[in-house]
Design brief:
Length: 149
């Protein structure tokens, strides 16, 4: 009986380690925005001596709140007045409200009474509409379908 109990604990421990390793391999690159998770990713082949892009570029991550996360790395900024709204609509199907400053839907995931789309740039929630926030090279934009309340 003791041998069976010991084997069960070993199997459970190994299973937990495998799950942790898989989660780390999948989520760490997404959190660091170092590996694109979508086929729509801009694969900028122009790079400087540090290996980064030579053109002004940004990263975009969209967390749909249901376990689906899409990420794009090194998306070129075509102009100096390129907003978060421009970037998002370039990569996703977006429904805007309030003169393009508020997103009510991304790729069919639509706001409701308990969830809404919120965005962050470099880990900070800007406090202005996405159509007003002008991106700078190197910015990391995160959209999250956030639970309200």
């Amino acid at each position: 009986m003791k041998v069976l109990e010991y084997k069960w604990k070993v199997v459970l421990s190994i299973g937990c380690m495998v799950i942790g390793l898989v989660a780390t391999v999948i989520w760490l690159p997404l959190l660091l925005n170092t590996k694109p998770a979508s086929s729509k990713t801009n694969t900028n082949t122009n790079s400087n001596s540090n290996g980064g892009p030579t053109n002004p570029s940004v990263n975009l991550t969209v967390d749909y709140g249901n376990g689906t996360v899409r990420a794009w790395a090194y998306i070129d900024i075509p102009s100096s007045d390129y907003s978060v709204a421009n970037l998002t609509s370039q990569e996703c199907v977006v429904v805007f409200k309030y003169n393009g400053n508020y997103v009510s839907s991304i790729d069919g995931q639509t706001e409701n009474s308990t969830q809404a789309w919120l965005y962050w740039v470099d880990g900070v929630q800007p406090g202005i509409g996405c159509g007003e926030y002008i991106l700078q090279s190197g910015d990391a934009v995160l959209w999250n379908f956030t639970k309200l309340g």
